[in-house]
Amino acid sequence: MKKGLVMEGGAMRGMFTCGVIDVLMENGIEFDSAVGVSAGATFGLNYKSKQIGRPLRYNKKYCKDKRYASMESLIKTGDIYNVPFCYGTLPYELDIWDVDTFYSNPMDFYCVATDITTGQAVYHKCDNYDATPEGADISWIRASASMPVVSRPVEIDGGVYLDGGMSDSIPLKFMESQGCDKILVIETQPADYVKKPQKYMGLIKLMLSKYPKMIATMAGRHDMYNNQKSYIKSKEAAGDVFVIRPDAPLHIGATEKNPDELQRVYDVGRRIAIENLDELKKYLA
Predict the structure, then answer these.
(1) Is the pLDDT of residue 4 over 90?
(2) Which of 143, 148, 180, 240 ranks highest by number of CB atoms within 10 Å?
(3) Is the pLDDT of residue 122 over 90?
């Protein structure tokens, strides 16, 4: 039996996911394959490196640091989350990402990015060992979390990529395609959430004018997302997948500066994971 894990993105709603995966790691629950989107990739990679508490710790410590996320960084660099700090200084000097454990862990780990030329999702398997900020895998993870408008597109091997959530927000079907028999989906929105059409399409069309297929993907994102939520609910009702999600909107900012708010959302994730732990163990057995 092959077990899979799917982690939705959602910027700092990802603190919910952090709470969930810490409970899973504390209880020795392992998966054969995992896929993360955007924050689900940047925070979820700690599952493979087995670093309980790490993303909560560094987010609380650096959330107010202008080197981490700021309008100043956006104006000066084109990235609201400062790339050299977030993908270099922080994981390789200040709060070390355990690269050796990540790559020695046999669990397959994928991140999702969007090819802005085609508007299609790309699923990258992170198995190219490189313990430096210039490594291919960390570049793909950065691409997965590079939100349009407030991030520069990421160039990798001749391709150009942005946030994977634009093209495949909750990649359950991808995980099913990997042959998984049991799949846990971690969502960061409540069950009844319905995504509305993008309000800033005018700005998006201006900034991404060279990429009409990416514009089309973003214009239709709400339909894609809502269809995915419906599909997940149908699979959940049939007992084919297990879903852990918030029981109410998380109401947290995309670049939240209040450490107490980060802790609050993390604690919601822990609470709901603990409430579902026994049933999840039965499902995965």
Answers:
(1) yes
(2) 143
(3) yes
